[in-house]
Write a structure and sequence with these properties.
10% of the residues lie in helices and 44% in strands. The protein is mainly beta and 176 residues long. An eight-stranded antiparallel barrel has the order 1-2-3-4-5-6-7-8. It is globular.
Length: 176
């Protein structure tokens, strides 16, 4: 791509651009190794939730725990992909805001599909409250999960808990 890249300092643009790039990487099957806000020094994150997170979601029995990768952008956007089969759901897109102190609210939605037919089954909305650890490298969360049909009617809901660890940059040694 020839030409100059114009720097735009709009938080909304950065959030949308980061979400779009992350979604494209997820859709293309690429491994996300770092994102805005990810730090290589654990003490540098403090009270900032922006970054890439490795998350474990504990759902009610008989559902097993679910692994998830989540990117929270500096501008308040969120993109998530999980270890659930891609035929059953889309990546989750959402938004977040700081409530107070180390407490954050996050809301996201993903599409649900019938894995055999590919038919659209509706959406799933996840509202969570996350408490960031003192050093900013982990969080704990409680979430209300609401399952909706294609017309937006609630067909079920449940509560889940989660914990997340900030993904760190792992540098490779310099080449000779």
């Amino acid at each position: 791509m020839a030409g100059r890249i114009r720097v735009i300092r709009s938080r909304r643009f950065v959030a949308v651009a980061a979400s779009a790039v992350t979604l494209a990487a997820v859709a293309g099957g690429l491994t996300i190794q770092a994102a805005a806000g990810a730090q290589s020094k654990p003490k540098s994150s403090g009270n900032r939730i922006a970054g890439t997170w490795e998350v474990t979601v504990n759902r009610p029995a008989p559902l097993p725990p679910l692994r998830s990768l989540q990117v929270l952008t500096v501008g308040g956007g969120m993109v998530e992909t999980s270890a659930e089969p891609p035929a059953t759901r889309s990546p989750q897109l959402g938004t977040w805001e700081r409530v107070r102190g180390r407490l954050y609210a996050v809301t996201g939605v993903h599409f649900r599909f019938n894995p055999q037919t590919g038919a659209f089954l509706g959406t799933q909305k996840i509202n969570s409250t996350r408490r960031l650890s003192q050093n900013g490298q982990s969080f704990t969360a409680i979430a209300r999960v609401t399952v909706l049909d294609p017309d937006g009617h609630v067909v079920g809901s449940f509560t889940a808990t989660a914990s997340g660890q900030r993904m760190q940059v792992e540098r490779i040694p310099d080449q000779p």
